[in-house]
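#lab-general

N.A. 3:47 PM
ok so I finally got the sequence cleaned up, no stray characters, all 135 residues accounted for. can someone with queue access submit it? mine expired

B.Y. 3:52 PM
send it over

N.A. 3:53 PM
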Amino acid sequence: MAGAVLCLAGELGAGKTTLAQGIARGWGALDSVTSPTFVLINEYRRADNEVLYHVDAFRLAAAAEAEALGIEELFEAPSPVIVEWPGRIERLLPEEHLWIDMTWVDDSRRNLAFHAHGPQHEALLRGLRRAAFGG
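B.Y. 4:20 PM
back already:
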């Protein structure tokens, strides 16, 4: 998952932060995972000192704000990055990423549609399918 960019898109309440928490837990994050809505970027570490970045673009008015903050540098690092509200900074996203559209079904269910862009993220999606559904 090194260098992976995971884009979590969906309306308020779709479960983006909950999915980010599950991804971070599965990645091995030692830190508590919370929404970085007010700080914009959280860093989570695991035992080997690797870092996972968690970006929340909800409060950004435009991609130019994210650009001024240097968010593009995160995408160039070898660390994985989770982006909530990626549509707000879409022009800054690397060509290679995994876009996950989340829609609310009911109180306990969400629909997730995965769209892999680029060979690294296509391989990541194949691995996820194998892990989830066998084969």
